[in-house]
Design goal:
- There is one protein chain.
- This protein is an alpha/beta fold.
- It has a single domain, classed as Alpha-Beta Barrel (TIM Barrel), CATH 3.20.20.
- 50% of the residues lie in helices and 13% in strands.
- It contains 12 helices and 8 strands.
- The longest helix is centred in the C-terminal third of the chain and has 21 residues, at 228-248.
- It is globular, with a radius of gyration of 18 Å.
- The mean pLDDT is 98.
- The structure holds 2-(acetylamino)-2-deoxy-D-mannose.
- Residues 10, 46-48, 166, 188-191, 205-208, 242, 250 line the site of 2-(acetylamino)-2-deoxy-D-mannose.
């Protein structure tokens, strides 16, 4: 499998108020992540892309625009999971035909599915695409996590390649990395980038890397070079910013700040609410401060 290690942006998606994808702006955002952020890869159609709020045609457009814009430059993973299995399978096949390096699927949520149902879901989707599959584990949202024995059962299938591991349970993350050295674990919480790197994650996938990929790469490289004090100070810097973004509304604030770079970033999909005018001003002030510091 040809996948770069390192920092992957979980691609933000600009939407119109009608909920359609602003294709030119999406392409500009992706181009910015590749040529200015210097990301090692892109994770398309994930939580950050608000995919679970979007309709099928928007999901397809996002996968198509991203593949065409990247044109093979950086590694690309398509998140194709959905609790509508027909939709998920059709997106899996689309990702395959568009040349994605791998797919990923959120753990099926809302209903309480058994482990064997969840395992079948992953295998069916991996086989539909015939691509390596990264299990998108985000227990805070889905209510489901995987222990080592369950992970072993998932990994018995050769196409199940690893995890996008978005959980604060770092003990299990360490156990996974050690138990399955031939598999790949991506660290999913930007706040824990340094911890994931220290434990030997292959890479990290995150929303804030749409703006701070260079900072994230420095954290990653300093940590790998053993410069812990430097890496820790930079993680603290990133976390100060993340805290402010989350307080405003993460995706809304990221979009507002990206718009300062001249790219129209559109709005968020409901039920997410757009920022109030006061929040917009706060996001702009934060963005300008970060620009002045050379972080954006
Ligand atoms: O892709 C992202 N998860 C979600 C992973 O957006 C749900 C993370 O990058 C977080 O946005 C980030 C901030 O909490 O760690």
């Amino acid at each position: 499998m040809k996948l770069n290690p390192g920092i992957y942006a979980a691609q933000l998606v600009p939407y119109t108020v009608e909920g359609t994808v602003m294709e030119t702006s999406l392409a500009a955002m992706i181009e910015r992540n590749i040529s200015i952020g210097k990301v090692d890869g892109l994770y398309i159609g994930g939580s950050t892309g608000e995919t679970f709020l979007s309709d099928s045609s928007a999901k397809k457009v996002v996968l198509e625009v991203a593949a065409a814009t990247n044109a093979g430059r950086v590694s690309m993973i398509a998140q194709i999971g959905s609790i509508n299995m027909r939709e998920a399978e059709s997106l899996a096949r689309l990702a395959s035909s568009l040349g994605y390096n791998a797919i990923s699927a959120v753990t099926p949520y809302y209903y309480k599915f058994s482990f064997s149902e969840i395992r079948d879901y992953y295998i069916r989707l991996a086989e539909a695409a015939n691509l390596p599959m990264f299990v998108y584990s985000i227990p805070a949202f889905t209510g489901t996590s995987f222990d080592i024995e369950q992970s072993r059962k998932l990994f018995e299938h050769p196409l199940i390649a690893g995890f996008k591991y978005t959980s604060g349970d770092l003990f299990t993350m360490e156990r996974l990395i050690n138990a399955f050295p031939e598999k790949i674990v991506f660290s999913g919480y930007d706040e824990l980038l340094l911890c994931g790197c220290a434990l030997g994650a292959f890479g990290a996938i995150g929303s804030t890397y749409n703006l701070f990929a260079r900072l994230a790469k420095t954290i990653w490289n300093e940590a790998r070079a053993g410069n812990l004090a430097k890496a820790r100070a930079l993680q603290a810097k990133l976390n100060d910013i993340i805290q402010q973004l989350i307080k405003l509304g993460l995706y809304q604030a990221l979009k507002e700040i990206i718009s300062l770079t001249g790219i129209e970033a559109g709005t968020v999909l409901p039920p997410f609410a757009p920022l109030t005018s006061t929040q917009r001003e706060e996001a702009k002030t934060l963005g300008k401060r970060l620009q002045a510091q050379g972080l954006i």
